[in-house]
Amino acid sequence: MTRVLVEVTHPIRWATVRRIVAVEPGGYCHGPVPVYVQGRRVRFIDCGRRLPRDEQCPACRLIVTVQPAPTSEPGAPAATGSVSRRS
Ligand SMILES: [Zn+2]
């Protein structure tokens, strides 16, 4: 079961930013399905690429979890995005 964690932020009131925070791969497919070309079996592909979600094996099934971004503390300094370097 592939798990994807998505973080949602609203930097400005009318904009929504979705960011993939983590991806946990599910592993190899447990039930590959054949691909036929002109009646001849050509190869096997992962069931997640062909079958609808409810027919996919547990390894191919995709689970997306959406969570709000953590808010900064009121007294914490705001991140500015610039970094000073000393050598
Ligand atoms: Zn599969």
SSE order and pairing:
Layout: E1 2-9, E2 17-24, E3 33-37, E4 40-45, E5 62-68
Parallel strand pairs: 1-5
Antiparallel strand pairs: 1-2, 3-4
Residues 29-31, 46-48, 56-57, 59-60 line the site of zinc ion (ZN).
Summarize the structure.
0% of the residues lie in helices and 39% in strands.
End-to-end separation in angstroms reads: 46 Å
Q: How many strands, which pairing sense, and closed or not: the largest β-sheet?
A: 3 strands, mixed
- Categorize the overall geometry: elongated
Counting structural domains, the number is: 1
Strand content: 35-45%
What Rg is obtained from the alpha carbons, in whole angstroms?
A: 21 Å
Number of strands: 5
Element-by-element helix/strand order: EEEEE
Bound molecules: zinc ion
- Helix percent reads under 10%
Low confidence ranges: 78-83
Structural class computed from helices and strand pairing: mainly beta
Average pLDDT figure: 84
Q: Order of strands in the sheet with the most strands?
A: 2-1-5
Helical segment tally?
Answer: 0
Characterize the structure shown.
The strands form 2 sheets. This protein has a 3-stranded mixed beta sheet with strand order 2-1-5, with no helix packed on it. Strands 3-4 form a two-stranded antiparallel sheet. It starts with a strand and ends in a 19-residue tail after the last strand. The protein is mostly beta strands. It has one domain (2-68). Helix content is 0%, strand content 39%. Zinc ion binds next to loops.
